[in-house]
């Protein structure tokens, strides 16, 4: 089996998580500068077998698209052109940042460590991926 890679797309930084080859465990991989995201994904997918990208879908409480969806749509178009052989699946990402922050508190990270926004993004991507895995 191939890995599944999750993306928590952000204006500045993007959190990335990935499954193991058996698609059982979701783990945070890294956070990359959004400007470098496509290059990172092309490099990663040339080295690892990835069968699916799971991309967070930000929504408002009334189920309408959030403002940041306007940033994600152009990225998805570029992604499908640059890496056309890997499909994209969208997952509702409401509350993932809050859940990521709570996860950091629950795991005993100090206040200074919890201010690391890159870590929050990586944990958010992991939560998006776990949500996808639970739904399969």
UniProtKB/TrEMBL annotation:
One Pfam short name: RuvX
GO CC, alphabetical: cytosol
CDD domains cross-referenced by the UniProt entry: YqgF
GO biological process, one term: rRNA 5'-end processing
Superkingdom of the organism of origin: Bacteria
Enzyme Commission code: 3.1.-.-
Keywords from the named record: Cytoplasm, Hydrolase, Nuclease, Ribosome biogenesis
NCBIfam families from the UniProt entry: RNAse_H_YqgF
Function: Could be a nuclease involved in processing of the 5'-end of pre-16S rRNA.
Protein name: Putative pre-16S rRNA nuclease
């Amino acid at each position: 089996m191939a890995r599944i890679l999750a993306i928590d797309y952000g204006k500045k930084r993007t959190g990335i998580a990935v499954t193991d080859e058996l698609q059982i465990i979701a783990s945070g991989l890294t956070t990359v500068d959004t400007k470098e995201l496509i290059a990172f994904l092309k490099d990663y997918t040339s080295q690892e077998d990835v069968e699916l990208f799971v991309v967070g879908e930000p929504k408002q409480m009334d189920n309408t698209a959030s403002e940041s969806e306007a940033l994600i749509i152009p990225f998805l178009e570029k992604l499908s052109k640059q890496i056309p052989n890997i499909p994209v699946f969208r997952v509702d990402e409401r509350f993932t940042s809050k859940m990521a922050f709570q996860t950091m508190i629950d795991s005993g990270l100090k206040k200074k460590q919890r201010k690391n926004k890159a870590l929050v993004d990586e944990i958010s991507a992991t939560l998006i991926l776990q949500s996808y895995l639970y739904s399969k």
